[in-house]
Design brief:
The chain is mostly helical. The radius of gyration is 16 Å and the shape is elongated. The protein is built from four helices and no strands. The model has no long low-confidence stretch (mean pLDDT 93).
Length: 125
């Protein structure tokens, strides 16, 4: 049991860092995009969802119960999906770039990991 707990803690620490790095990478990327009225809205929403993904995953790691963990992870799932949505909008608006594609790929991977964690946690309840 201790080994399983250690693996879970190692994963949680690595995933906290991964979501935080993704958040910072998105903010830095958005600094390179022009700021007009429409982009202000998109950039604001994207920053909100990316920061929320990282912050809420940290909160998930402090869950008080399995039900609380699953509930908090659900918020992370919603926010990471929204992050993917806004990155896709940028691509649809022709802001295509290798960096944007990389950000979308990482955000999609984070979304899939969170979705799998939710289903595994529900199955182990």
């Amino acid at each position: 049991m201790e080994k399983e707990q250690k693996i879970n803690t190692d994963f949680a620490d690595a995933f906290k860092l991964r979501t935080k790095k993704q958040c910072v990478a998105i903010i830095k990327f958005l600094r390179t995009i022009e700021s007009n009225q429409e982009m202000y809205v998109i950039k604001n929403q994207l920053i909100k969802s990316a920061t929320s993904t990282a912050a809420n995953y940290r909160a998930t790691c402090r869950a008080k119960s399995k039900a609380d963990f699953i509930s908090k992870l659900g918020i992370v799932h919603e926010e990471s999906d929204e992050t993917c949505f806004w990155l896709e909008i940028l691509i649809d608006l022709d802001y295509k770039s290798p960096e944007l594609e990389k950000l979308l790929k990482e955000s999609d991977e984070i979304l899939k990991i969170v979705a799998k964690s939710i289903s595994t946690s529900r199955a182990n309840r």
